[in-house]
């Protein structure tokens, strides 16, 4: 599809990578979070119909922008070769699917698990991307804006679900989020195995192996002790980070009287 390749190449506007904690990074971070908080507050009283529209709209937006990203890497960066390391099933990619699936499910443990996951694990992922921005800055405007807007969308979804009362309020709720995370880790590991040969060992969804982790600390652990040791330490570390995100939401729910008393 020559016209599609031409379009992608025409939008490959180069830029100097924004510096961590430079003007671009800090302005986008603080303005973006402020907008997310205001939008979440304004949508705090929406009903189920409006909730479905809100989440599905975010999910569709993420899907459309992800298609562009995949095409950009295929045509412009890979020169017609698929870049397996950006296969769309990383921790921060999952909301693209959950925002569409979750609101269409009946109220229950599965839906709650997905909502709780997005208000803990995905909110953690969105915030961490701006705290340590090396993974979201690129040499192209479109890729940088995609990464910044994408992770800010995760922050919005997390704040919105909390503001509207659809979040992990209790330890049991957080357990459902952990179960969701573990289930997604299993799926990610299976994807890694299925596409291991096709990707020449380049695929590493959720960074759970069998390829060594590229993440700080865990990269060293993988090299010295093996990917399986790194994975066994990485998974509970992510759960701990999500639990830290859960705690203020829990105390907020407690203060607002949102936790049902047995």
Write structural notes for this entry.
The protein is mainly α and 262 residues long. The protein has ten helices and no strands. The protein has helices spanning 2-10, 23-42, 48-77, 95-101, 109-118, 121-131, 141-163, 171-194, 218-225, 227-255. α2 (23-42) runs parallel beside α7 (141-163). The longest helix has 30 residues, at 48-77. 32% of the residues are buried. The model has no long low-confidence stretch (mean pLDDT 96).
Features:
mainly alpha; 10 helices; 262 residues; 65% helix
Q: Describe the global form.
A: globular
| Alpha-carbon Rg, integer | 19 Å
Structural class: mainly alpha
Order of helix and strand elements from N to C terminus? HHHHHHHHHH
* Approximate strand percentage: under 5%
Number of extended strands:
0
Low-confidence stretches: none
Largest sheet: none
**Euclidean distance between termini CA atoms:** 61 Å
Layout of secondary structure:
Layout: H1 2-10, H2 23-42, H3 48-77, H4 95-101, H5 109-118, H6 121-131, H7 141-163, H8 171-194, H9 218-225, H10 227-255
Helix pairs in contact: 2-7, 3-4, 3-7, 5-8, 6-7, 6-10, 8-10, 9-10
In a few lines, what is going on in this structure?
This protein is an all-alpha fold and 262 residues long. The chain has helices at 2-10, 23-42, 48-77, 95-101, 109-118, 121-131, 141-163, 171-194, 218-225, 227-255.
């Amino acid at each position: 599809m020559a016209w599609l390749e031409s379009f992608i190449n025409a939008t490959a506007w180069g830029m100097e990578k924004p510096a961590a904690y430079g003007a671009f990074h800090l302005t986008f971070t603080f303005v973006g979070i402020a907008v997310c908080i205001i939008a979440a507050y304004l949508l705090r009283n929406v009903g189920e119909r409006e909730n479905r529209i809100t989440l599905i709209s975010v999910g569709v937006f993420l899907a459309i922008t992800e298609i562009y990203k995949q095409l950009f890497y295929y045509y412009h960066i890979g020169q017609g070769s698929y870049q397996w390391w950006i296969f769309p099933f990383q921790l921060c990619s999952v909301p693209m699917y959950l925002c569409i699936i979750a609101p269409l499910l009946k109220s229950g443990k599965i839906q709650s698990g997905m909502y709780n996951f997005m208000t803990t694990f995905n909110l953690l992922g969105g915030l961490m991307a701006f705290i340590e921005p090396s993974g979201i800055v690129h040499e192209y405007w479109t890729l940088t804006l995609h990464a910044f807007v994408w992770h800010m969308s995760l922050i919005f979804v997390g704040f919105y679900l909390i503001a509207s009362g659809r979040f992990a309020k209790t330890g049991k709720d957080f357990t459902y989020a952990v179960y969701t995370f573990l289930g997604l880790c299993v799926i990610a590991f299976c994807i890694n195995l299925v596409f291991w040969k096709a990707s020449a060992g380049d695929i590493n969804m959720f960074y759970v192996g069998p390829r060594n982790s590229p993440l700080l600390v865990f990269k060293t652990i993988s090299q010295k002790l093996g990917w399986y040791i790194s994975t066994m330490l990485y998974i509970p570390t992510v759960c701990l980070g999500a639990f830290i995100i859960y705690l203020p939401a829990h105390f907020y729910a407690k203060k607002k009287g949102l936790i049902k008393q047995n």
